[in-house]
Structure formats: C-alpha cells, structure tokens
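Q:
Just now I want nothing more than another pair of eyes on a protein record. Here is the record:
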Amino acid sequence: MSTFTLHPLQKAIEEQNLEEVVRILVEDPPCIDRKTEDGVPFCLYAAKAGNFPIVKYIVEYSRASMNTVDDDNRTILHYAAMAGSLEMNRYLVEKVGMDITAGDRNLVTPYQIAWEHRHTELLAYYQERTGAAYEKMYHNPIRTGMFPDPSIVRVGEDYYMVNSTFIFFPCIPVSHSKDLIHWEIIGHAITNPEWAHLDELEGGRGYWAPDISYNNGRYYITATYRLNDTGTVYRKQIVVSSDRPEGPYSEPAVIDEDGIDPSIFHEGDRHYMLLNRGARIFELSSDCTRQISEASLLFYGDQKRAPEGPHLLKKDGYYYLFLAEGGTGPGHRITVARSRELMGNYEPCPYNPIMRQMDEKAGIQRCGHGKPVCTQNGEWYMVYLCGRRVGDGYSILGRETALDPITWTADGWPIVNGLKGPSVLQKMPDLPIQENCGDESIQKSGGVDVRNGADLQDNGLLSNGTFANGLPGEFMTPRPPEKDAIRFENGNLILKGSTHPLASVMARNILVRRQSDFCFRAEAELTVPELKEGQEAGITCYYDENTWVCCYFQRDKDKYAIQVKEHIGTEDICHPKEILSEDPVGEQYVLGVETEYLHRRFYCGKVEEEGKTLAELSNVYYLCDEGISMGKRFTGAMVGIYGYGGEESLFIEFKEFHYQGMPG
C-alpha cells in the first residue's frame, strides 16, 4: 500500500486554486522544488495542469528555476505543450525564453508533443515561431547507427558523404542526398578485398575518419589506415579517386605520413593534405597520390586537447580552419580559426567552441568532428558526429551523424546553430525533398522515424548478385569475406561458415548491418543445414571479436539444439540449450532478436509458427564503445547472420533477413 500523501501544493494545482497556491508558496517557499509521486517537479506539473495564472505566478513570484527539468530532461514547455494552452505557451516562449525545439532525453520536443496531441492553435503558433510546419522539420541525428566522422561535399545539386568503417568491408561508404536529410549509400571507396588489407587487423582499427572532396571532374577520398600496435608504424594515409562518386575508385595510394583524420584541400592546380595533431599541412602531387613537401604546422588548436579532424575552407579572402578538439567523448567540440594566408598564422574564433554540447543531461552528446558545406542556394550547414547514450552512459548505436545550420557573424565568423549546441529538431534546408531513398535511408515523416525493413530480397538484390553490388549498401562483413563465401541461388543467400569462430580476428563471413534504432526486431529465415559437432548457424548481435552475443543451431551428439551465447572480453556465458525433439535438417526456421535499449530477447520457431523465447538478456552493455576496455572501441552495435564451420565445410541457406525499427 502506498504511503504517499498528496502535498497541499499539488492538491491546490490540481484544483486550479490560485489563491491557495499563493498562500502555500508564501508560507513555504521551498516546497515549489518538491515533486509529485511520479517524480514531476511541481512547477512542471502546474504547466501540465494547464492553468496559466498559476504558472505565471510560479514563474514570476516563486523561487522555482526555469532550468528545472524532470528525470527525462523535459522542461516546463514540454508540459505546457501537453496542456495545449496557447496563452501559456506563448508566455513561456516569448517572455521566459523556453525553446520549442528543445529535446528531452529521448529527443522528444515540445513541437512533437503538440503535433502528437493535435493542438491546432498551438501548432500554428509553433510554426510561426520556427518558420516551418512540424512536417517540414527534421530530426537529429540525420543518420542513425554507426556513421561517425562525416565528411561532405556538394557537386552541383548533389551532396556526397563518407563515414568511417574501421575493419568493416566494403570500406568507407559513399552516400548521396539531394536534400541533406535523406541519404542512400551508392558505393564504397574500397570494394576489392585485395586492396582492403584488413585481414589481420583488430576490431576498431582499419579505416578512420575519411574525407571526400571534388576537383576538376574527379572525386577524392582520403582516410587514415590504422594498423595494429605490433610494429613501429601505426598510421598511414590512403587516397583513392574516381570520376564517378559511386566509384569504382582507384587502388589506394599510400602516403607514409604519421597522423590521423586527413582531408584534402584543393586550390587551383595545387592540392594539400591536412593531418592532426592540430592541423599539419603538406602538398600533394597533381593526382594526389604522393607527398611532395614536408609537413608543417598551421595551428595547434584553440582548446589544445586532442586537436584533430582538420578541414580548410576558403571564403571571402580568409582561409578558415575547422578542428575537432577535446577527445571524442563528452568534451568533444568544434573550433575554428582563420588566416589571410594559407600558411600564415591562424587567429582563433572569439566564439569558440562553435559547436559543443554543454547540457550533460541532453539526449545528444559527444558532438564534434564537423565539416561545412554550402548549398546551391547559398545556405551553410555543418555535418558532425554525435552520440546518444542509454543506461549508465552506453553509446550502443555508435557515433552518428547530425546536421545543423551555420550562420556568419558580422565580423565574418561561422557559428553553428547559434552557439546553442546540437539541435534536436530543425527546419529543413530549402532544398527539394529527396524521394525514393534506399533501404539504408531514414525517412522522417511528421517527426516519426519510418524505417523500411532491410530485407535481403528487396528490389531483387539477391538475384545473381555479388557481395559488393548484390546486397543493400548497408550490409557489411568484419574484414573481407572468404572467397565465394556469399553467393545467391534461386533467390536465396548461401553463406559459407567461417573456419574460425566469432571470437577470432580471423573469423569471416559475418554478414551484418548497423543497429540504427534503440528498439528493433531482426529475424533471419534459414534452412537448417546438416551440422557436425562444434559447427554453428545463426544470428548475432555483434560489436567486434571481443564482444558479441549469438543465437545459433548446433549439433548436440545425435540431436540438434538451439543456444544463446554471450562473449564479453575473454568470458563466454552460455545460456541453457533448447534441445529439439525432431530432426530440423532441411526445415525452415526463423531465428529472431527483439531489442528494447539494452534488453535482448532471442526466440526461434518454424516458419508461420510463433517463436519460442530462448533467452532474455537484461543488459548487453558490452555492445558499445564504453562496455569494456579492450582494444580500440570506436564502432557501434551490429546485427546479422553468421556461420562457423571449423575445419569442415558448411553452407547455410538464408531466405531472408529482416530488420525493423520500433518506437521506444
């Protein structure tokens, strides 16, 4: 039985008794800081109740702070939007200065709440204030799941972006957009397994922080190639180029200059590469494949902690140098400096950092590593990386890509989103909306994510395809697959079991896609193969060789079984086996995983039958950067299919793999 007693102030608010509210707050001023049984601060509760005179009195005469938020980081305006009172919302926005587009911990804004409640008058007012109807707003991140270290270039009316892929293959996706919001992977910088050189690399290494640029009819992609810490050389730079943005790209040219986060700056017929620390610069050959000058330091940075990700922009007689600083965690930021001369001394911006998340409770964190782009209409935007955390601070989706507008001050400095930090909800760029995006694209409608399931059979992509062009662009493997490991027969995918288990750097043929939602369902329909003891065929939630969980068919003496296994560092946690009473070989089964944040439920059943729960995992904290300390952890959670054959051959027939994001 609850022992909670309704506080007199809460009772007075519920009864909309202004006189009693005044009396209580005069006699007991600190009580305004108390909360309801549900944890809602009284000042926010008053806004939800919808009585404007009470809210106005609390704002102007009580000791309540207008920085007060609830446990979900919702402000007083979130609660006012629930009530729908136009007068109260107008007062809170215009007189108190509350933000219509401020996101709570789950990135829900007052604008979204008003839209969901269909408060017509309030929506009209919000539209007037923001300059756009809710349907014409976009949400950050614009690319969810592992899309870190974005770099962007515009060519005419087309926009192209690249992101890090580390040890995943194909390497470095090239994405296309017409509107800066909806993106589709159209190719990769490296699709030839022999050019990837990933076979021996540990998870989190490989291709870091790529940059894409365009000059004189040719596209250039550069990236850091990060090796294992086993020799004396840890980092090299690679450059590829093509006359088509989707590729194919040239064989990577290697530049033996130490550093990370390269970018290429073209000026006339001369070309330069920038690298950290700070921004070092050296000249490249005419085809950008060779270093032809010594590196020299342009500027070390403003904050001077972990200065990296340099990008140069020339505008109005200035060279603007953008840097990522503060490390890729909570202190991440973007700074800018400028000079009249390319090699001259750079003056830091007085408004630095021009992008940083200052609210530790906000849903979007670790913002930095940005690059500017100017639209064909003369509007400026910045793409940058960010991360969203759940549980005790776990960025399980990895580092994602966000977008915010740049404005230029009267004294010629660029600032991002008015120095307010990352936006959650923002007016769409004045560009034609891109239609018919591919499966990888996240399509926003009315503030709600509408994600198409990534079926292997979508658009006929299974028919006689190869890995590089026979699967939707979001599918990858950790390191290149074995030869002929992924093929297509009669509309189905045939996956060869790896000779090495998931916990090995040598494991291959693990076909995965990014986890792009905190809540999702993924299912694989397969024909159960004949297995030998020790062999496996199943699905996996994968981060790297050090951390994963799988659900798989196995041979247990003369019977078959299904089991869920977690691998955390050096520890295996094997959940109870489900022994099958009948021989399943040749039968169609569905293996599935249902996810709600850090919770995983694995299930299995015959096609057209309800799946039986095999295991429920309450906290898969290890599928993220912060989960454990082992190796380089910069990627994000994946989900997909795999097989382990060992010394014996194994081929598994998958009819489909379906991923569907769900509301949280």
